[in-house]
Design brief:
Layout: H1 2-20, E1 23-28, H2 33-44, E2 50-52, H3 62-68, H4 77-92, E3 99-103, H5 111-119, E4 122-127, H6 141-148, E5 155-164, H7 168-172, E6 180-185, E7 192-202, E8 205-214, E9 217-224, H8 229-244, H9 249-256, E10 267-271, E11 275-280, H10 286-299, E12 304-309, H11 318-332, E13 336-340, H12 345-353, E14 359-363, H13 366-376, E15 382-386, H14 394-400, H15 407-410, H16 416-419
Parallel strand pairs: 1-3, 1-4, 2-3, 4-5, 5-6, 6-7, 11-15, 12-13, 12-15, 13-14
Antiparallel strand pairs: 7-8, 8-9, 10-11
Helix pairs in contact: 1-3, 1-4, 2-8, 10-11, 11-12, 13-14
Length: about 425
């Protein structure tokens, strides 16, 4: 049934694209795909009729659903039949978007090739970075790099690749003679460059403050309720896309003030006991965890508390990645560290070996950890909560947030299907 559904959705999606001929922006990368997609949607919506992938609809089922503008029916066959019927009706008449912004993810070899066959022709390909997350089914980081770069096969003759130029390995693997490349980042080799990054409190809201530089133009940007460098990379990627579609940086800066980063991506939430929570519970890789720890270090006014779940799907790089996180904990001097999951034992062992001055507690699951975290935190603590999806660290956030009744609105994975897992 699953295989048949996948084929039907693919065909319907392809027919829809042939029928309406929208411009397509494909977004991929190891981390930051969803935030970049949302930022691109935010800035393009000022001028165009745009549809972006819902939530993280980024696989062989999610991408066709995004093209069709429908939600997953999960395990309900009757609702799936209704989704397919509506997809057929929309081929006859529909006010279709001018631009699609599609998140495209890979977990296994061949995934990107399948998604590219669905969309057929991309106008822009955005690559946020390529790290070591989702490495479990790949022989080495180079194999993962090749798979991610498979998105370039979908570019049309006039297509352009928008790439994080701070990722030197990524830049080295893109053939500049074959593709038109636009780089964004903090380094001087970036066509669209960020500078003067600060985490500041403005009008009662914490947020990122920075400047965007492009061909002699400099525009200040403040994005409220968004923390850390990942938000800036998303904003830069969105700026590059917006410029290609004829918007200017003033338009971009104005739109980004309304940008709301997705739940579980370095969001500041009020905690119990007058604490503040840095909720980064959506997922985790070594790179993104280190960035989150940097945000914790910059913002914390009281004790620095880190609740870190295992980083899964790292394959052979798991030990190295967890040790890198331990080294960053040592550097920033967290007071209290809660570790969750089997792989997180590597962090515990490394911290003890390095004679970490703070307290370290390990738990097998988030359900075991959440009450202990609640007991141990003190007023004025800043608590970072981060881990891979499999560890479900959002349960800890729900336990210690000041308004748990708002969990469905503020936290990730609050649907009934996720709660049952």
């Amino acid at each position: 049934m699953q295989k048949l559904l996948t084929v039907v959705l693919k065909i319907l999606a392809q027919l829809t694209l042939i029928r309406f001929q929208p411009k397509i922006v494909g977004v991929t990368g190891s981390v930051g795909k969803t935030s970049a997609k949302e930022a691109i949607f935010c800035v393009l919506s000022k001028k165009y009729r745009v549809r972006a992938s819902l939530e993280n609809y980024n696989n062989e089922i999610g991408v066709p659903l995004s093209i069709l503008g429908e939600k997953s029916a999960e395990h309900n066959i009757l609702i799936w039949l209704w989704v397919i019927f509506k997809g057929i009706l929309k081929l006859i008449y529909s006010k279709y978007p001018e631009i699609l912004v599609l998140e495209m993810a890979v977990d296994r070899p061949g995934d990107m090739g399948y998604l590219v066959k669905i969309v057929r022709k991309l106008d822009l390909a955005v690559i946020t970075n390529v790290g070591i997350s989702h490495l479990e089914f790949f022989s080495n980081p180079a194999a993962l790099m090749r798979e991610k770069l498979g998105i370039l096969q979908g570019l049309g003759e006039d297509g352009k690749v928008i790439v994080n130029s701070d990722d030197s390995a990524l830049l080295e693997n893109i053939d500049r003679t074959k593709y038109r490349v636009v780089g964004f980042g903090f380094k001087d080799n970036s066509l669209i460059k960020a500078s003067d990054f600060q985490l500041i409190k403005k009008d009662g809201f914490w947020g990122v403050n920075f400047k965007i530089h492009y061909q002699g133009t400099v525009v200040p940007v403040f994005i409220p309720n968004t923390l850390g460098r990942p938000a800036i990379y998303s904003a830069l990627a969105a700026s590059a896309v917006a410029l290609d579609f004829g918007l200017n940086l003033v338009d971009v800066s104005s739109s980004l003030q309304k940008f709301v980063s997705p739940a579980g991506r370095l969001k500041l939430i009020a905690g119990i006991k007058h604490t503040q929570i840095l909720d980064d519970s959506y997922n985790a890789s070594p790179d993104s965890t280190i960035v989150a720890l940097e945000a914790l270090n910059l913002m914390a006014q009281g004790r620095k508390v880190a609740v870190l779940g295992s980083m899964t799907e790292l394959g052979k790089e798991s030990e190295r990645g967890h040790k890198e996180v331990a080294a960053k904990l040592m550097e920033f001097g967290a007071t209290l560290v809660f570790l969750i999951g089997s792989e997180a034992r590597i962090i515990e062992s490394e911290l003890r070996q390095r004679k970490f001055a703070g307290q370290v507690r390990w738990f097998a699951t988030s359900d075991e950890a959440r009450l202990e975290v609640q007991k141990q935190i003190l007023p004025a603590d800043t608590i970072l909560v981060k881990g891979s999806q499999a560890v479900r660290v959002e349960k800890v956030v729900k336990e210690i947030m000041a308004e748990p009744l708002k969990a469905k609105k503020l936290l990730v994975r609050q649907s009934e299907s996720w709660k049952d897992k």
